[in-house]
Specification:
The complex is a heterodimer of chains A (258) and B (298). Chain A has 258 residues and is α/β, with parallel strands linked by helices. Chain A is built from six helices and ten strands, in the order βββαβββααααβαβββ. In chain A, the strands form two sheets. In chain A, strands 6-7-8-3-9-10 form a six-stranded mixed beta sheet, with helices on both faces. In chain A, strands 2-1-4-5 form a four-stranded antiparallel beta sheet, with helices on one face. Chain A is globular, with a radius of gyration of 18 Å. Chain B is 76% helix and 0% strand. In chain B, 49% of the residues are buried. The chains are: A alpha/beta (258), B mainly alpha (298). Chain A: GO terms for molecular function: ATP binding.
Amino acid sequence: MPEPSTPEPVISLRGATATLGARPVLRGVDLTVHRGEVVALLGANGSGKSTAVRSVIGQVPLTGGTVELFGTPLRRFRQWARVGYVPQRTTAAGGVPATIREVVASGRLSRTKLRLPGRADRAAVDRAIELVGLTDRAKDSVNALSGGQHQRVLIARALASEPEVLIMDEPMAGVDLASQEILATTLREQVAGGATVLLVLHELGALEPLIDRAIVLRDGCVMYDGPPPEAVGQHALPGHDHVHPHAASEPVRTGLLS
Amino acid sequence: MLEFLNPPFMQRALIAAVLVGITAPAIGIYLVQRRQALMGDGIGHVAMTGVGLGFLLSTNPVWMATLVAVAGSVVMELIRWYGRTRGDIALAMLFYGGMAGGVMLINLSDTGSNANLTSFLFGSLSTVSEEDVTAIVVLAAFVVLVTVGLRRQLFAVSQDEEFARVTGLPVRVLNLLVAVTAAVTVTVAMRVVGLLLVSALMVVPVAAAQQISKSFKVTFVLAVVIGTAVTLAGTVTSYYQDVPPGATIVLLAIAAFVVLTALATPLARRRARGRENEADRCTLEVPAARPASDDVRV
């Protein structure tokens, strides 16, 4: 078992290929995330960014290439409590009512597995809810929440296992401005505490100051890997440097839509 | 006053009814949570072949139905894993094949008759034997053990399967366990409510409970309370009035759903109003072009 201080990358994807039906979605993607790094995976719809992230945690089978988490090949990786995963969702609700606390507590199962939760486990769940600023609503049904609050619940669920790496698939999709700020603050605290983060984003937005490195995918290939570009997505690609009416870092904040 | 407790067949029927009232919503809540509310219906159809086999081989139909229903539920779960494309067609084959096979087998057997068939399809209290009660008690104990003992794990898997896989939980095993437990519940409930109405008792008490609950825990407890209440009330009613127990129980459950839904509407409105007072009201000046009477409320 590797010690936390070992130098191997937290996430290492080498030459990854994957297909969806007959269509190639990943065509040889290399993606490395080192300890303490915050890496954003960018790209247009269908560029393979979601598939890349889901293959890292074994939710998409690769047709070629290798995945390693904390230096262990994915096939043999068992320490899931070290990984906090936020899937791409618009809702945290299921077919039956559940409170915020009940949903967040399920994130602790990577540590408790089949045993009963103890005091430390309950405290970790409370802390995770507090981190996303929902303590006063912990006993409310998730059905009563807004889109941004749903994302906060999903992130709290990932934080409940006190993970070393956070893997998030579009955590900002459909999130209002107030929740974006809270999510950015939560993430900043995690990063300050030494967490490693890999997240899929549509645009850098409120998270821009946190990002160490951006990887841009197009048609299942890495097009860019380096410091976060000024403008993102299609416009970040080489040879695409025209001036925008407004910079991506300055979204029009009328407050009307938030 | 409690003379319905005297005849031994009623004692057996009431034991079976209570166990059905507890187990059906207890596993049903996970099916509803996974949005597979009709799964129990499918298993009920498949169990019919088991009943038919039981008659043909002159063994206890409850155990045979359990065996076949469990096998059917495992096949359904496998179809869900692998057969993405034509999964629904495969399930339809399984359901209707199971039902047709059961009818055929019962007619081929010496002991089975159409009366027997009807009692399994719609439930019949007077035919619950000592042997059936033993089987029902053993099977119900298994269902309670799984649904209560593994509630945290089953909640996580039914709430968000993909997330559950990334927590390292044995998701496939847990999914199989839900399917098998649902199959066992179907055969527990078969004698009282009948195979065609089993699914109703898995779904309707849960649907009724969630009208007024905010948490999974309360929904679970309330669904079991409602389930037990309607199965007991339905069984006793069918003792005094000559009405089929299964239909009575299901109609009572639906009545509970209607009543709770009617109660929930003002409750939800009051909650919303409470939240509205806490929340910030509009503070922006409304442009002059807007008529003054147009009161903006959130």
